[in-house]
Each structure stands twice: as C-alpha cells, then as structure tokens.
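#structure-requests
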Amino acid sequence: MTLPTGDFHINANGFIGTLHIASVDPQGNVAGTLTFSGEPTNHLNNVAFWNDVAQELTFIRVINPSTPSTFQIFTGYLFPANHNQPNGPSHLAGSFQAFSGTGGTAKRFRFGWFANHT
C-alpha cells in the first residue's frame, strides 16, 4: 500500500486541520502541506519522508524556522480502515514530539495524532 495523495483530516492532540499529500517521489520524499485551523500553512517539502516497507510517514512541522524549539516531529503509520478492503479508505496514526516553543516539557513532550484519508 502506497501513501495516498490528497487530503487527510488530521487531529493532533485536539488541533484539527488538513494534511495534504501532493506527491511522493520514488525515493520516498513527500511534498505537501499541513494546515491547522486558524494557523498558517506548513510546507512539508524537504522535511517529509515516506517509508513504503514500514508504511511510515515522518515529517517536521516547522512553525518558526529561526526558532528550533517551535519544531514538531511527526511519525505515523498507514493502515486500511477495513482489512477486507486494503485499497479502500485508509488512516494514519502515530505521535509527535513537541519542544518548549509549542508546549512540550521534559515531563510531557510526546502527543498523539491520527488522520483519515478523504
């Protein structure tokens, strides 16, 4: 199963938005955007990878390029909504690491996220 292109409805620790996968090249580089409601769009170009064998998507949400403490690192895994329809609707689920600039602390820096392909 390859990473579907198009829009995923994403929920990242209660923040709702759209994860748009524009393309995945043969080397696994992902182009797209991540937009949470009421926030500027984050571009995933050059900061996102797809591992087809592991069915794993990893990307960095760069909120303020000059302040690394505002970066968030997302990792999620693709799976079918119904195992009887492996080419049907799919989901991503995983976690992200947040640093002090986005609410992370030494005691809590990992948060959950999931996304549904539309």
